[in-house]
Amino acid sequence: MVRDRLRWAILALITVSHIIGAVAQYGINTLAPFYQQDLDLSRAQIGLFFTAFYSGLAGLSYGAGWLADRLGVRGTILSGHLALGLWTIAASFAPSFAWAFGSFFLAGLGYSFLNPASTKGVMSWFYRDERATAMGLKQTGVPAGGVVAALVAPSLVLLVGWRWSLAGLGIMNLFFGFFFWALWREPAQEADSSEAPARSSEGARPALQVWNLLTVSFGTALLLVGQMTLLTYVPLFLKETAGLSAYWASQALAVTQAGGMTGRIGWGVVSDRLFGGKRKIVLVLIGILSVGLTFGLGLLPPAAPLVAVLPLIFLAGLCMVGYQGVSYALIGEIAGKARTGAALGIVITVNSLGTIVGTPLFGHLVDVTGSYSIAWRALSGTIFLGILALTLFLREPNPDPKVTV
User: Fold this and answer.
1) Out of 125, 170, 181, 252, which could bridge 85 as a Cys pair, Cβ 3.0 to 4.6 Å?
2) Does the pLDDT at position 78 exceed 90?
3) Letter string b/e over residues 219-231, b meaning 16 or more CB atoms within 10 A of that residue's CB
4) What are the CA-CA distances from residue 214 to residues 382, 394, 402 (Å)?
5) pLDDT band at 403 (very low <50, low <70, confident <90, very high)
6) What domains does the chain contain, in order, with CATH numbers?
7) Contact at 8 Å (CB) between 155 and 63?
8) Is the pTM of this model over 0.90?
9) d(Cα 180, Cα 339) in Å, to the nearest integer?
10) Which residues contact 234 (CB under 8 A, 6 or more apart)?
């Protein structure tokens, strides 16, 4: 089969889109130790900022996916970066919790455009035997954006304060949206006619496989609760239990994000190469490891040494942040190229609803009990329920690598 070499340059462009978008998203938790006192916020209120962001994400994800299927990748991603950038800048002016909550909600509406469109782009440019790897590579942009936020945003705070630091993350999105518009290209028509039946048959699927999508949605929703809880509370966890300053606690989040970047590539390669294109078994394996690692965080004693904490949060990132390339490949293969945007919109909507509830609930549990240990163990049980659902109810599409859908 003939493969367009431009696909790797396009993948790089999509990945950078995720980096820039995630820089704004993760500015919320990275800057939390700085704005918490300024805005007089509780831990639960900080968690509610992600609730706001993911409420916006949930509210528009299906519509954004529908739009990507019909209007294409270029315009959808441009719209997403512009809205995300503008409302992140608005959040930097927040005098109160309510202002910031509303701004982060509207920023989430903008962010909802990025994932369905970028996943549709990967489905269009890559065949199945490379797809989980490509999805993993493009999804490294999300934790990479977290690393950039963790390294850059606190340093900017020292120079210009947290408000200008947050505004700067929004400005990056405004500029990049137009950059993406200028560079995006659609894949050329395949020259090899033998590929046409495989491509056209996928576009002709009569309906979305709703049961499989709902199963994936529920299972990955609980994995995403684990991911967003980890990324939201690691800085506060390290500040309050390991005695780190706000600056170094925020910087340490880069360790978790680096684990996520490694996992999104590594698990994609494992799925494509080691398991021959199978996705379910890899997701279940990731989930089992995530359960153990989260429970391990709950076993850490007070003032645990960093030599014990840092490897654990790296491995937690490897699994709990690293699973999404495999899951997005699975979603695209369940739905088919023609409906990838809408299918991912459905899954992201359900995922976001889980995060809306789960992330602040973790913070509330810590507030009520005064114990991170209890909260980490409760999160471990939550992730286990998601993995059990995937194990029992998910029916995976044909993983034969010769199938190029």
Assistant:
1) 170
2) yes
3) bbbbbbbbbbbbb
4) 17, 9, 27
5) very low
6) 6-184+197-393 (1.20.1250.20)
7) no
8) no
9) 23
10) 249, 252, 253, 256, 313
